[in-house]
Each structure stands twice: as structure tokens, then as C-alpha cells.
Amino acid sequence: MKRLVKNVSKDKTFHSCQIPLGLVEMLIKSSTREGDSIFVLFGGSGSELLKCKELKRNFISCEIHPKYYNMILERLANGGEIPPQYRLEFIKNRMNFDVAAANQPKILPDFS
Predict the structure, then answer these.
(1) Taking the complete model, does pTM exceed 0.85, yes or no?
(2) Domain ranges of the chain
């Protein structure tokens, strides 16, 4: 079975189906107005809920999976930041590599 939406979010979490936020924003803006209420059936990683909040829409959502539920609560409380324990392992490793690389002294090759 082919997936229609892949985990293409730049903020990848362990959630298997993060919908691109540009698509979510377009759907919200084209079908609601500020102050309207939106029912997000599956809370997932919380990205859609954060987009509702950003676009000044009220939201109601459901999430049965305890890990996703806790991640949503943490993201709503801290402005959308994804805590490290919810990121995919390869993203954590890349972030650690980027930090380490930024802290390395810049050594230029000796071309003399």
C-alpha cells in the first residue's frame, strides 16, 4: 500500500504521518475564519494544533496514544518546540553533529 503523505516534516518526530504544515495552513485558511473552532480528529504530533493556535483558531482534538498525547501537551506548553526524547534517532544524531561541528575550531589547510 502506497502512502499518500510521508513523514516529510522538517521537525520529524517518531510519529509516522506528519502532514506538511503548508498544506495544513492552506486548508485551515480556506475553510475557517479567525475564532472558528476546528476538530482535529487525530492529535498526532500536535503540529496541526499548533498551526490552529498560530492562526487564531480554537481546536478540539483526540489522541489515544499516551506518547503522542504527552508530546502534544509539552509542545503546546513550550511554543511548539519538540523535546529531544520525541525526535527520531537520526535527527537527534544530526543535531548533535551540527552542534559539535559548530564548536570545532576552523583549521585551514596549509597550501604553502
Answers:
(1) no
(2) 1-88
CATH of domain 1-88: 3.40.50.150
End-to-end CA distance of the chain, in Å? 59
Whether the Cβ atoms of residue 91 and residue 68 lie closer than 8 Å to each other: no
Residue of 19, 11, 14 whose CA lies nearest to 42: 19
Query: What pLDDT, in 10s, does the model give residues 48-81?
Result: 999 999 999 999 999 998 988 999 999 999 999 8
Residues 14-54 have pLDDT tens digits of 555 667 888 899 999 999 999 999 999 989 889 999 999 99
**Where do we find the cell 506518547?**
67
- Contact yes or no for 30/53 (Cβ under 8 A): no
